[in-house]
Design goal:
This protein is of the alpha/beta class. It folds into two domains: 126 residues, Nucleotidyltransferase, domain 5 (2-Layer Sandwich); 92 residues, ATPase, nucleotide binding domain (Nucleotidyltransferase, domain 5, 2-Layer Sandwich), CATH 3.30.420. It is built from eight helices and ten strands. The chain has a five-stranded mixed β-sheet, sandwiched between helices. A five-stranded mixed β-sheet has the order 8-7-6-9-10, with helices on both faces. Helix 1 packs parallel to helix 2 and helix 3 crosses helix 7.
């Protein structure tokens, strides 16, 4: 099964072409340019270099969240556009689970973290299995770093941090006596290969969707939505009783 995967959930942007577990081609950029400028040229160049047409792709996969609201919308919209003309199946995968696959070989529990701002991180937890897979230990969530620290203390197991929030969390966790290490830089950031690997698992479990059913999972309200809700609550509170 040929899988075309997109990753635009954070500051890095990548695309990958896989055949089952095998990585055929990948393009990665972390240079500060907007994903709306880099994604499609990267994708088109990768497919051309690999000598594979979009018609030959069996599955379109994308990191569907959590992550940057704008980045997720760009990635999901692009995936829909690629899948719709050929009515190709789609996989919207967890950004956090996709990151965990890059460290599944380490033997440590894997703690993906993304900076969610407002004193929180997006996080999930995973353990590697004997057959090279992953077992989920915690759901995708937005969680305070203090709360995550207490959870990892209770777990008492060695952790490896992946994700663009790894540096943010490392010092705090280390100071609290948690056995934690950073994934090496080339495995730390989100990559489209991890997205493809998650998508393969969804395909094997019959959990795919189509372009229409592909949606981002934000896990919390956007800043604009939070501000609107706060205004509504303030206006409601100001009404005479």
């Amino acid at each position: 099964m040929k899988i075309l995967a997109l990753e635009t959930s954070a500051t890095a942007c990548s695309v990958a072409l896989c055949e089952d577990e095998a990585l055929l081609a990948q393009s990665f950029e972390h240079c500060g340019l907007t994903h709306s400028r880099t994604l499609m040229p990267m994708l088109e160049g990768m497919l051309a270099t690999a000598g594979v047409s979009l018609e030959e792709v069996d599955l379109i996969a994308v990191a569907a969240g959590p992550g940057s609201f704008t980045g997720l919308r760009i990635g999901v919209s692009a995936a829909k556009g690629l899948a719709w003309p050929g009515d190709k199946p789609c996989a919207g995968v967890s950004t956090l689970e996709a990151m965990a696959w890059t460290a599944a070989h380490t033997g440590r529990e894997i703690c993906p973290v993304m900076d969610a701002r407002r004193h929180q991180v997006y996080n999930a937890r995973f353990a590697p299995t004997a057959d090279g897979g992953l077992t989920r230990l915690a759901p995708d969530r937005a969680i305070a770093l203090e709360e995550l620290t207490e959870e990892l203390k209770k777990a008492g197991t060695a952790q490896i941090l992946v994700g663009d929030g790894a540096d943010l969390c490392y010092t705090t966790l280390k100071e609290q006596g948690i056995d934690v290490m950073l994934a090496p830089p080339h495995l730390r950031f989100q990559t489209a290969w991890g997205v493809a690997r998650c998508a393969l698992e969804q395909a094997r479990k019959g959990q795919l969707t189509d372009a229409q059913g592909l949606t981002p999972f934000y896990h919390r309200l956007s800043q604009a939505e939070r501000e609107r809700l706060a205004r509504q609550q303030a206006a409601q509170a100001a009404k005479p009783r």
